[in-house]
Design a protein that fits this description.
- By secondary structure, the chain is of the alpha/beta class.
- The protein has 15 helices and 15 strands.
- Strands 1, 2, 3, 4, 5, 6, 7, 8 and 9 form a 9-stranded mixed β-sheet that branches. A 4-stranded antiparallel β-sheet has the order 10-11-12-13, covered by helices on one side. Strands 14-15 form a two-stranded antiparallel ribbon.
- The longest helix is centred in the middle third of the chain and has 30 residues.
- 49% of the residues are buried.
């Protein structure tokens, strides 16, 4: 790997000392991990070293019930930047390459809305959404003009790009900067020379290049505490150990970005949000609507709300809440700026003041249609504090496996052990994982691993009916094209334009 010398030289040449940021402007820094999870001290991981994330959490409100609205990279990022679930904004699956999913042309994304209100916008790192005009930033340093390894994993390069943005785009305007790391995403399918998670990229070994600011940390696989949904095998443990190395690189990168913010004089007027796009790329994780696939780390650090620093909120939160939160921070009325769409998320700023007393009616929703273009497996979900209902629309087909996870040591070990009729040391069988019923209902209080499906049981009939109604109402409100699937056809044009109907297929 060669450092992009020309790019680095360009950045270094144009950097200049700037005056400290003005305290009368409020700004936002949004930091996103790529397939990141709870591998940090703040969430009680005792092995993975993340001092910078833990320090940020100490100055933040810590979210213990934050969830993505879709467990797939591009769809999740599109939802994060529009406040609309992927079935509403149009990015049904991955954006890049042959997948080619794009948002609808009339969708208004966060950077476009903010620009209209005189706010400078920048993105550094993985973008993975389109079309360009729908997601247009004033300053863009992404995979569209660099190697994603450089703008997403080379933390020295990312640091310098952050410095460039802060010194050249923020003098007269408030700003929104979106830093999207590519760590700890797998890379064994695209760049196997750097390891399963690109854990050797830039580590100084022969042929690996050097990231000057990175101090690699290597982990002993036999010391790791595995989450319940990863099989307890040597292959899986080594896989997780390599993931930890890239999480530590992510952590050091977060520290560098936050230092740039402080050095530029913006740490006392900038809202900092940290989260991830979806679950980790392990079995039962990414592409699933189980908690292991949708639960996300989240910190929100506000210099104006120090009373809740280092406190925890248990309020149910969705990444669909990020757009309303940022618009609220800037004092922008979202009802005017995204009309005629009514966002279903909420501002999280009230949580920075106090914990809600009544959480009975809190709900989060999720909507997954595809990951790769060949992975058609639409699912819809509603989750309360106690129960979760999943509707598997394509339940008669096997649950699909994506390319990078398929060749991973963890999945290959499960697959080979299954073929050889050996113990997989996993909490499910592949047959159970592939073959799912149409409806899944779980009591998360008594079954947090989501193994005991209660759908169809008489004692839970009322609960299931209530959740089905809530899910249908959300699908209707967000204009879900799949609202009638799989047992009916949506007729919403012509004679049915003003009175949409689900016309039965009589295939029950």
């Amino acid at each position: 790997m060669k450092m992009e010398a020309a790019g680095l030289l360009f950045v270094l040449l144009i950097l200049a000392q700037s005056s400290a940021g003005s305290d009368d402007k409020l700004n936002v820094l949004l930091i996103l991990a790529d397939d990141g999870g709870f591998e940090m001290g703040t969430y009680r991981n005792r092995i993975c070293q993340t001092p910078n994330l833990d320090a940020l959490a100490h100055k933040s409100l810590i979210f213990n019930n934050a969830y993505t609205s879709v467990s797939s990279c591009s769809p999740s990022r599109s939802a994060l930047l529009t406040g609309m679930p992927s079935h509403q904004n149009g990015i049904y699956g991955l954006h890049q390459g042959v997948h080619h999913f794009n948002s609808f042309s009339d969708v208004k994304s966060l950077p476009n809305i903010l620009r209209e209100h005189g706010i400078a916008t920048g993105i550094i790192g993985k973008k993975d959404v389109g079309p360009k005009d729908t997601y247009k930033f004033d300053y863009e340093q992404t995979e569209e003009n660099h190697s994603v390894l450089q703008v997403g994993r080379n933390i020295t390069f990312m640091k310098l790009l952050t410095r460039q943005f802060l010194q050249n785009y923020t003098q007269q305007k408030p700003f929104f900067l979106y830093v999207a790391f590519h760590d700890p995403h797998r890379c064994g399918h695209t760049n196997p020379e750097y390891g399963n998670f690109c854990e050797s990229f830039g580590n100084g070994d022969e042929g690996m290049g050097l990231i000057p600011d990175w101090q690699p940390i290597y982990y002993q696989y036999d010391e790791i505490d595995l989450p319940y949904f990863i099989p307890d095998t040597i292959q899986a443990r080594k896989d997780v150990a390599e993931q930890y190395t890239t999480i530590s690189r992510l952590d050091q990168g977060v520290g560098l970005i936050l230092k740039e913010l402080k050095d530029a004089g913006f740490d006392n007027n900038t809202l900092v949000i940290y989260s991830s796009d979806n679950g980790i790329p392990f079995p039962n994780g990414r592409t699933n609507l189980y908690d292991s696939g949708i639960a996300e780390p989240m910190f929100i650090s506000s210099p104006l709300h120090r009373e809740r620093w280092n406190q925890v909120t248990y309020s149910l939160t969705s990444l669909l809440d990020v757009v309303p939160t940022i618009l609220d921070w800037f004092g922008i009325d979202d009802s005017n700026d995204v009309a005629p769409i009514e966002l279903t998320g909420k501002s999280l700023l009230p949580l920075l003041t106090k914990e809600p007393k009544n959480v009975t009616n809190e709900r989060v929703f999720a909507s997954h249609s595809l990951h790769e273009v060949t992975m058609y497996y639409p699912m819809r979900m509603v989750r309360t504090h106690r129960y979760k209902l999943i509707h598997n629309l394509n339940y008669q087909s096997a649950f699909p496996i994506d390319q990078d996870f398929y060749i991973s040591p963890t999945f290959q070990d499960i697959l080979n052990r299954t073929i050889n009729k050996e113990n997989t040391y996993w909490f499910k069988t592949l047959k159970q994982y592939y073959n799912r019923p149409e409806w899944e209902l779980y009591d998360l209080k008594h079954d947090p691993e989501e193994l005991n499906n209660l759908a169809g049981k008489p004692d839970y009939k009322k609960i299931m009916q209530d959740l089905e109604t809530q899910l249908y109402d959300w699908q209707n409100k967000t204009r879900d094209p799949w609202i009638c699937s799989p047992h009916a056809v949506l007729e919403d044009k012509g004679a049915y334009k003003n009175n949409p109907q689900c016309m039965t297929l009589d295939n029950m």
